[in-house]
Each structure stands twice: as structure tokens, then as C-alpha cells.
Amino acid sequence: MAYTHRQVGSTPSVDAMSPFPCLVIVHALAATVWTGGHLVLDLGVLPQALRERSADRIRDFEPLGLTALGLQVITGLWMGLILLPDLHGLFDPANPIGLLVGTKLLLLTATAALAVHARLRLIPNLTDANLIRLGGVLG
């Protein structure tokens, strides 16, 4: 069922029961948590971890970001399927929705690759001794 815009004051239709508005809210909240979490990590947790030379502070912070990113992936894919059910017109400049969904899928792929790299290589190899290198890269 596709999401359609209704005029203010019009009678609700079956489309009013679409999950799209709830998906947008959950997606936006997850994006806020994910982005805000990175700001807190960069401006608060990382400087403190560097001062204390404690890699555990960074490791303890990771699950929040992964949960928020997972919610963004699920809701984003669901909204993409609502807006472009058959994926026809993906990356087509004549189809603005297809171009938007395609671009977001490319960005999702890049973000997921970086998240997997951080989860499987960066965080497991992070120690108190090499923490300062992470600070030099991020700071």
C-alpha cells in the first residue's frame, strides 16, 4: 500500500493506516540517537578515555550506536519498499524517488561497511596501549 499525501481536513482513507508515518518517526529518532551518539563519543567519551587511557570506555559505548543503526536500516529499507515497491526506476534521474532511494542505498552500503570494519577490526583490536592512535585519527 503506497503512502499518499492527504489534504488537510479531508476524510481519512485506507492509506491513513499506512505504517509510513510511524516508520519516519522511528527512523528520525534512530538517526538522532546515532548522530548524537557519535557527537557524545567524539566530544565526551573519547577525550575522557584518552585522558584515562581506558579503551573500555569506548567499547561500552558501542551497543547504543549499533542498535540505532539497525533501526535505521530496517525502517529505511521498509520505507524504500513502500515508496518504490518493485525497485523499478532505481537510480533513474527521471524518477526522483528512485534516485533518492538508490542514493540512500549506496550511502547505507558505505555506512554498513564502515560499521562492520569498526565492529570486527577496530574495536576488538583496541587496547589501552593503542588508544592514542584512535584519538589521533578521530581528534
Walk me through this protein's architecture.
With 139 residues, the protein is mainly alpha-helical. The protein has one domain (18-138). It has four helices and no strands. Helix 1 runs antiparallel to helix 2 (56-83) and helix 1 packs across helix 4 (131-138). The longest helix has 33 residues, at 20-52. The radius of gyration is 20 Å and the shape is elongated.
What's the quick description here?
The protein has helices at 20-52, 56-83, 96-122, 131-138. The protein has 139 residues and is an all-alpha fold. It has one domain (18-138).
Which properties best describe this structure?
single chain, 139 residues, mainly alpha, 4 helices, 69% helix, elongated
In angstroms, what separates the terminal alpha carbons? 46 Å
Biggest sheet layout = none
Q: What does the radius of gyration come to?
A: 20 Å
| Series of H and E elements | HHHH
SSE class: mainly alpha
The low-confidence parts are 5-14
Beta-strand percent range: under 5%
- Helix-residue proportion: 55-70%
Number of helices: 4
Number of DSSP strand runs: 0
Tally of distinct domains:
1
General shape: elongated
Mean pLDDT comes to 83
